[in-house]
Amino acid sequence: MTDSSLPLIDVAPLVAGTAGRDAVAAQIGAACRAHGFFYVTGHGVDPALVQRLEVLSHRFFELPEDTKMQWRMALGGRAWRGYFPLGGELTSGRPDWKEGLYLGTELPATHPRVQAKTPVHGPNLFPDVPDFRETILAYMGAVTQLGHRLMEGIALSLGLSADYFAQRYTADPLILFRLFNYPTQAVPEGLDVQWGVGEHTDYGLLTLLHQDHIGGLAVHTPDGWIDAPPVAGSFVCNIGDMLDRMTGGLYKSTPHRVKRNTSGHDRLSFPLFFDPNFEARVQRIEGLAGAEARDDSAERWDRANVHAFSGRYGDYLLAKVSKVFPQLRDEVL
User: What confidence score (pLDDT) does residue 191 get?
Assistant: First the structure.
């Protein structure tokens, strides 16, 4: 266990496909049932790669805002990629006190989905920082592979075949990646900001988060809000709304938020969202013991009933992201 009471799971047998992966899957299942959050170690992602991404991200965020705006999201169009400045992203209608760079699977303009103008698909806007593009792509590739292994563990934890999700949803997952910087500077007077990121749940299947040594993540467990402090060499993982929907509420997507940074040093975090394919039709898994699929909207932070959703995952995603950046809504809808 960690200081936050969120479980710390060594997933090395799962990553390697060796003896012991069923035991790891059982630990993941217990964590998903308890509060939907857990740390993973033994994940196989090169710590030197993570460190290099941190160094280059600091280098980018330290650039003048006018320079960073050369890669602003308005230039990313339907791909929904690029930079946004402090206060530029909303949660529940209020600005978050962070800046960030939106990224995703790198697709050329000739790719069929880009040619079809599928939202949130396309080329990234890579800032002109030496080695940044190569490092981002290497990091995304490594963490995406970890996502595949963890989804195998989640499938096993539910008594399903290891390839259950890959066969139906994630052979070609929708990968969205963010570089976030939470500055230590004060919020300007008159700006309605309370949090680094306000309370929310994630949209898809699984989020894999690297946070630096400063911390600030808090999780709303059944026993109340608890901190999820950084654990060196780990990723923090949490399940999203679609896994809640698929499991009939057996594995619930858990609200979380990020405190405003008052540490005196800028804070970085790197969430990668491992989601169903954009075109995938999300269905409830039949026959799961303990799954209810009841309307729990009265208990949710947003009063939404995720179990009422049916259709493409992409439709669910677009309805959400259009509220995060309302000024760009017309680009994706």
Answer: 60
pTM comes to 0.93
- The superfamily CATH assigns to domain 8-332 is B-lactam Antibiotic, Isopenicillin N Synthase; Chain (2.60.120.330)
Q: Which two tokens stand for residue 225?
A: 């809000």
Residue for token pair 């989905």: 113
Dist CA 238 CA 205 (whole Å): 8
With the CA atoms of 16, 268, 31 and 304 taken in that order, what torsion angle do they form, in degrees rounded to the nearest 10? -130
Residue 66: exposed, middle, or buried by beta-carbon count in 10 A (0-12, 13-18, 19+)?
exposed
Distance separating alpha carbons of residues 202 and 242, to the nearest angstrom: 9
CA proximity to 157, closest of 304, 247, 26, 8: 26
Strand extents, DSSP E, the chain: 8-10, 37-41, 82-84, 90-91, 94-95, 99-104, 174-182, 197-200, 206-211, 217-221, 224-227, 235-239, 256-258, 267-275
Task: Provide the residue ranges of all domains of the chain, joining segments of one domain with +.
Answer: 8-332
Tens of pLDDT, residues 207-224: 999 999 998 899 998 888
Query: In percent, how much of the chain has pLDDT > 70?
Result: 91
